[in-house]
Design brief:
alpha+beta; DNA Polymerase III, Chain A, domain 2; nine-stranded antiparallel beta sheet; 10 helices; 26 strands; elongated
Length: 412
């Protein structure tokens, strides 16, 4: 007999992290040895290796002398673990063609027909670049909202910069319409600065893996560089129980440093809106219910905020808030409500400040560690209504076209 017992919650966390990878296989490799269960997950440009300490040494399995390797369907195994009713999940590998699982109920998972050669191994030749506080790196990456494919102007990249002199982590991400620039101070162990450029598709897996390392109380994450067949380079994120291997992007990162410096300064700011973050989120959520493609914001100092959203099927929504503080010039601007919500949620303070240059320039949300910049949307509400007041019901809809300045496109 070959039976092991695995802590069910630990298994759920590992399988959930594995499920964030965009894998061509719906399978994981289960490897039992030395009283540990290893879970290996392959993906297109990355792979993940995770280890779980087994609950007890079962009489049916001799961990020090026997090794078991078995493939299993990922989503089915995750579903069984989530619906289990016991703290320990029992796995029986006696049959060569199936894995029998007991978690309150009994299940049998057929072994997938993949050779173990398709799956990664823990051993990899990698040169250590640096070690960073797990909590700080996870906190920085968690602030980035990596937008889905339908909200991107092109295939997107993100950049991780590590500066040992200033003990600072910097992450920059853009999708052509918005930009996140996040900074965190952290304890860093390295002699030279590090810059890593990765594809956005691997970001959820990295973020989830770091979160799991936090839960497992791994104090540091080690970042290494390893050779890769395609790109000549890959990055390895390693803790005591996890190893995430991700191929680096083989294209250059957009030159955004000029825009970071420009929008970090206040010289061009003409209008400033300050209000409670909870109130702003509540207003945006009401706008999102209408499924309007974007909304118009009218700001009039000192305290007038009027938001208008129009949907061809549902109708018009107008919201007014007189508790906001508006400073500077009156302004009417069109914004994507999703982008505004992404930026507001990254501010830790109770109040959020939104700065505007004019109706055709990007707006920003900023605090000590976060710089969020997003493009405005074209708004034609007032102009169309004044030109054709008798056809208001047919012409009062905002254009879905996003006007992006040429200089911004060239940089990105």
């Amino acid at each position: 007999m070959s039976i092991i017992q695995v802590p069910r919650q630990n298994l759920i966390r590992c399988l959930t992290a594995a499920n964030t990878l965009k894998s061509t296989y719906d399978a994981v490799l289960l490897k039992v040895s030395n009283n540990k269960l290893a879970i290996a997950t392959p993906a297109l440009n990355s792979w993940l290796w995770q280890e779980i300490d087994l609950a007890i040494k079962n009489p049916g399995l001799l961990p020090d002398t026997k090794e078991i390797t078995r493939t299993a369907p990922l989503k089915s195994l995750l579903s069984i673990a989530k619906t289990g009713q016991t703290d320990l999940l029992q796995m029986d590998f006696s049959s060569p063609n199936a894995t029998r699982i007991t978690a309150g109920a009994k299940y049998s998972l057929s072994a997938r027909g993949y050779s173990a050669e398709h799956f990664p191994q823990k051993e990899t030749k990698a040169e250590t670049l640096c070690s960073i506080e797990t909590r700080k790196l996870a906190q920085a990456i968690s602030k980035i909202h990596f937008t889905p494919d339908n909200q991107r102007a092109f295939s997107t990249l993100w950049r991780l910069k590590i500066d040992p002199e200033e003990s600072k982590i910097t992450i920059t991400y853009t999708n052509g319409y918005l930009m996140f620039h996040i900074q965190e101070t952290a304890e860093i162990h390295t002699d030279a600065p590090v810059e890593i450029i990765l594809d956005t598709d691997c970001a959820p897996a990295i973020r989830h893996t770091l979160q799991q390392c936090q839960l497992e109380q791994s104090p540091k994450i080690h970042i290494s560089v390893a050779p890769d067949k395609e790109t000549k380079q890959a990055i390895v994120f390693r803790s005591d129980s996890k190893l995430l291997y991700s191929v680096t992007a083989n294209t250059a990162f957009p030159d955004l440093d000029h825009y970071i410096d420009r929008y970090s300064a206040d010289a061009e700011i003409q209008t400033r809106l300050t209000m409670d973050k909870a109130d702003l989120e509540a207003i945006i959520k009401r706008v999102l219910v209408t499924e309007a493609p974007h909304m118009s914001i009218k700001l009039d100092p000192p305290d007038t905020l009027i938001i208008t959203a129009k949907n061809r099927d549902i109708g018009d929504l107008t919201l007014q808030d007189y508790s906001a503080f508006v400073k500077g010039k009156p302004l009417t601007i069109g914004l994507n409500p999703h982008f505004l919500l992404y930026g507001a949620r990254q501010i830790d303070a109770a109040k959020v400040t939104i700065d505007f240059i004019n109706q055709n320039s990007p707006f920003r949300i900023k605090d000590a560690n976060v710089l969020f910049v997003a493009m405005p949307m074209a708004v034609t509400y007032e102009a169309q209504e004044k030109a054709n007041p008798e056809q208001e019901e047919n012409t009062g809809y905002a254009s879905e076209h996003c006007e992006v300045p040429k200089e911004y496109c060239e940089a990105v």
